[in-house]
Specification:
It is built from 9 helices and 8 strands. The protein has an 8-stranded parallel β-sheet. α3 links the parallel β2 and β3. Bound molecules: pyridoxal-5'-phosphate. The site of pyridoxal-5'-phosphate has 13 residues, from β8 and α9.
Amino acid sequence: MAFDISAYQEILHQLNGAATLVAVSKTKPHTDIKEAYECGVRDFGENYVQELLEKQPILPQDIRWHFIGHLQSNKVKYIAPFVHLIHGVDKLGLLDEIQKQALKNQRTISVLIQVHVASEETKFGFSPQEAIEIFTQLDKSRYSQISFCGIMAMATFTNDQSQLQREFSAAKEVFDTLAKVMGNDWQTLSMGMSSDWNLAVAAGSTLIRLGSTLFGSRN
Ligand SMILES: *Cc1c(COP(=O)(O)O)cnc(C)c1O
């Protein structure tokens, strides 16, 4: 079994509509994605542009592809024609490039701002203070082709429940603060992975990104 349908159904049941589930299929073959698709999954998350470009053409065209990895500006052009939501916007320069490629493709591209709330230094994103300052002041009219949909955050890799709660709450606070200035599309708080999604949803997540729970561990 490549896709764990009973785990999927159990999680859907527990979520009870509280959050969207994105199935993170990075490193998994397209046949696993097809299995999940046949169980009704339409939202898939990928981290690597090259891998996404190999999978997208050979899988059903109504899949909503979420780009959840670190995106370099020079790669935006490859995913701009079809990507459903870019989760990891961590630089204004990246927004400029997304605007340019969205115009070229005559479409609007939806993005989430990545906010760094974890204690690890390796994770990308704006600090909470930076995110609030920068996006409150941002001239959104420069980004006519971008839909600002919310925030993406990753918590520290830890079992410490109170630390996870603190980090998710910090992301929720940034999300709520910016909601006052970002417009009607600002609806998505993407946080929670296989090990911590329960806490993330309790803290207000509206979208969880699950890989190993659904597809098994990665090599
Ligand atoms: C890999 C990945 C996930 C899924 O992780 P699991 O622990 O396997 O659920 C979620 N979000 C991001 C950004 C990832 O890179």
